[in-house]
Amino acid sequence: MRQRLLSEGAKELSYEIREIVKKADLIKQLGQTIFWENIGDPIAKNHQMPDWMKEIIVETVRENDSYGYCPSKGVLETRQFLATLNNDRKGAQITADDICFFNGLGDAIGKVYQFLSATSRIIQPSPGYSTHSSSESAHAHANPITYKLDPENHWFPDLEDLYLKIKYNPNIVGILIINPDNPTGMVYPLESLKRIVEIAREFNLFIISDEIYLNITYNGARAYALSEVIEDVPGISLKGISKELPWPGSRCGWMEYYNKDKDIDFGKLCSAIDNAKMIEVCSTKIPQKTIPKIMGDNRYWAYRHDLNEKIGKRSTIISDYLKDIPELAFNPTYGAFYNTIIFREGSLKVSQKLKIKDKNIENLVQNWVSVPNMPLDKQFVYYLLGAKGICVVPISSFCSDLQGFRITLLEENEDLLKDIFKNLRDAIIEYLNS
Question: I need a labelling partner for 73 at 20 to 30 A (CA). Which of 107, 163, 272, 304 fits?
């Protein structure tokens, strides 16, 4: 090419949650059954959206208005409904004009980082969700700046680490939280959220809260929305229906802006994001139109409560299989539908392996793990995939220097769930003793 095409930030874009699928597909072609524990898609794990929801969607599809454009920021009636839903929490109040729709949160996340100035940084949790960390790194052309989530303290944020990173890095303009958290399944304590708001106020920052799992909590936990704690600090909440209804194929998410009138620069950022959507005309209309009809139905919250109870039960089953392995740092989960399991320092070694019966699969895995400087948790993940067909994601791919893996709590077939995690437990023990 006449000049270099790719920006320096392009090399920071990665998504191991999907990358592992490429390797799993190669093993599947060799005859191995794959158990997909890598991605948070309830539909792929046998969940059936209830018929009454499907009927609402079908009715919406039949409406001729569904096939036209909607306002650039989203369907007005839906934004009004969501503003009321937020305002009922009695925190930061918004109007329909403070909401903007996107084609999934991936679209929204990209827009947040795209329009920041070149030197502005958003500090990320670690472990962190790769869509955020990769997008922020690509924007900055640099490695992410992170604060620790502590596996020895229920995965709660290390607030001292957060404070000092912000204090000594003037390029940080915002704090990201994911609540409930992906990949750990932790729910931020109210006291931690209040302290994060205090830090943001002290250093004149804004807060981004990814709340896609806000209404997915269990085992006695309750997730507090950003709007409930933010007071007068500027902030953006990211929400959607892909995990909650769940309707991941809808690609329907939105931003809620809080206190955009409190800071001129923050207000300009929100306007730039809105203008970017205006240039695209609008986001997909049909899923937006269904939101008030579904979430406003008396059956919805009972349905959501029942699903949360089932996820909580699965979390207990998984805990029973894995919690007593001494080489693991295991934390119960209280929100979202993931768990991150960490190998204690020194537990993983280059020499460890699992027996793989099929010679072709064994050769494939041996080739993968022979890459120089292969992270030890990724080596375990590849052996697990080859030997047991269990597809998980290495935690080193979640912007973390810890060693471990992320699993999901989504399998609705309880007998299959138990088989998967019994095999996983046996594989861990075999691998550590090899």
Answer: 304
CB count, 10 Å around CB of 22? Answer: 8
Task: Give tens-digit pLDDT for 12-23.
Answer: 445 566 788 899
Q: Side chain identity at 343, as an amino acid letter?
A: F
Secondary structure (H, E, C), 247-290 = CHHHCCEEEEEECCCCCHHHHHHHHHHHHHHHHCCCCCHHHHHH
Please state the pTM of the whole predicted model: 0.94
Q: CA 316: distance to chain centroid?
A: 21
Helix axes 414-432, 376-388, angle to 10 degrees: 130
- Which residue ranges does the chain devote to CATH 3.40.640.10? 65-295
Domain spanning 8-47+301-432: CATH superfamily: Aspartate Aminotransferase, domain 1 (3.90.1150.10)
Per-residue pLDDT tens digits for 131-183: 999 899 888 988 899 999 999 999 999 999 999 999 999 999 999 999 999 99
Contacts of 274 (CB under 8 A, 6+ apart): 72, 73, 100
- Please answer whether residues 161 and 429 qualify as being in contact, where contact means their C-beta atoms are separated by less than 8 angstroms: no
Q: Return the closest-CA partner of residue 231 out of 264, 276, 198.
A: 198
